[in-house]
Amino acid sequence: MSDAQARGIAAASTPAAPHELGVADASRLLAAGRLSSVELTQALLARIDAHTDLGAFLAVDAAQALAAARAADARRAAGQATPLTGVPVAHKDIFVTRALPSTAGSRMLEGYASPFDATVVARLGEGEEGGAPGAGMVALGKLNCDEFAMGSGNENSAFGPARNPWDRDRVPGGSSGGSAAAVAAGLVPAATATDTGGSIRQPAGFTGTTGIKPTYGVCSRHGMIAFASSLDQAGVIARSAEDCALVLGAMSGFDARDSTSAERPPQDFHAQMLAPRAGAPAGKPLAGLRIGLPREFFPAALAADVGDALRAALAELERLGATLVDVGLPRTELAIPVYYIIAPAEASSNLSRFDGVRYGHRSTRDGDLRDMVSRSRAEGFGAEVRRRIMIGTYVLSHGYYDAYFVQALKLRRLIADDFRACFARCDLLAGPVAPSVAWRLGEQADDPVKAYLADIFTLPASLAGLPGMSVPAGFGAHGMPVGLQLIGDYFAEATLLHAAHALQQATDFHRRRPA
Ligand code: GLN
Hints:
By secondary structure, the protein is of the alpha/beta class. 38% of the residues lie in helices and 12% in strands. The chain contains 17 helices and eleven strands. It has helices at 4-13, 23-31, 37-50, 62-77, 119-124, 177-184, 201-207, 241-251, 269-274, 304-319, 335-350, 369-380, 383-396, 401-423, 448-453, 459-464, 493-506; strands spanning 57-60, 88-92, 138-143, 190-195, 210-213, 233-238, 290-294, 323-327, 428-432, 468-475, 481-488. The chain has an eight-stranded mixed β-sheet with strand order 4-6-5-10-11-9-7-8, with helices on both faces. A three-stranded mixed β-sheet has the order 1-3-2. Strand 2, helix 5 (119-124) and strand 3 (138-143) form a beta-alpha-beta unit. Helix 3 packs antiparallel against helix 4 (62-77) and helix 11 (335-350) crosses helix 14 (401-423). It is globular, with a radius of gyration of 22 Å. The two termini are 20 Å apart. The model is unreliable at 1-13 (pLDDT under 50). Glutamine binds at residues 149-152, 175, 195-199, 227, 343, 455.
């Protein structure tokens, strides 16, 4: 632990290698004219090339990235840069992009070329068609993910797994495994990701990166390939809360093309995050902040290494002035069956469009229309996606709809009510992201239910639509990273980021890099 001033001096005297730069670092060097976007982009493209064994990227277009970098340098020279102009980014392959393939990690969409960019991609890049100019970030490529974002280890990708840079025999988490692996390995300073039931927070936790899923509706879902529409939300994986704030701000804001988008303007999360808490004395930036610890998030069965790392991080938050409060989320266990009814139900409906006619892979075997559709779907979808479609179709079918789907909707409301009761007594909630550190590749392959159970700490906030973060909190078994989860009230992203930033000013876990 070093104080900010000492670090500032160290940073100035030892210039970091391009792959060590975070978003804010790169932004400062670009603004000072000490680095060009072309130089930074070239360095990262070379590093991506040297680390293809990580399976992080599904597509890279070097020529396009360099053209965007040149345009960014020209925009900066013309005095029209935003803080993000020229900073490289990469997109989870669940966002559609005109310039690069969009597969959602599925054979079903192999060869698909989108006629438009997702809103989030456009806002970070050149801007929406006919709209204001975008942030001017340089897109390096598309990142691996579980097929249609269904999974927790990136092992359900049709294009092979992504690997954890801390131990290549372990998963990077999922479904945004490629985003997390790329950021942890220094292939890109920040990546877009999506979270339906934990897919930003859990891979960030497994790779020692920082991830934020905002309140449902803060980022547009337009052009995000749908998994479970009432839960899907875009966010960021980066190497610090500050970097997350910069990128999330540029992605945020109302979009008329998404009917569930929140009617709020884009937010300057970075400025909000840096604003000191009213009345907080020096050295106690979190004075007055009440952090609730839900009892159900600290069960006796929680792995000892995870518990130890969390307790140390919570002690640090207390030292920074926060007060820890005992609270309860009594329906935590129910979040698993509720999510694994609602998410597959919505998925079965969303994925019905992939029939080999309007969208998707078409089987070439002989047969009538019915055979053609069912063969196309059987060939195009992987095992986990087929399992979810079958479960979803079952819980929505006549005779089971009331018993499963409607019950799940009622319980979802009660889970949200439990959070409401907590937020009457505290400002943030804290707990683990996952019950253990990253598991070994293949370890959960033959038991999907085991992976579902490991989602227990991320599903409740997703069902309630609340914002959540994963912040590096140290290391556990096998030297693997442990994530601290922070959950905020609706639209309390700034409070979340402020607390995470304060923790990162006092600790250096987020700066540790795999060898
Ligand atoms: N692991 C969860 C699932 O498999 C969450 C995935 C996600 O958030 N996209 O559905």
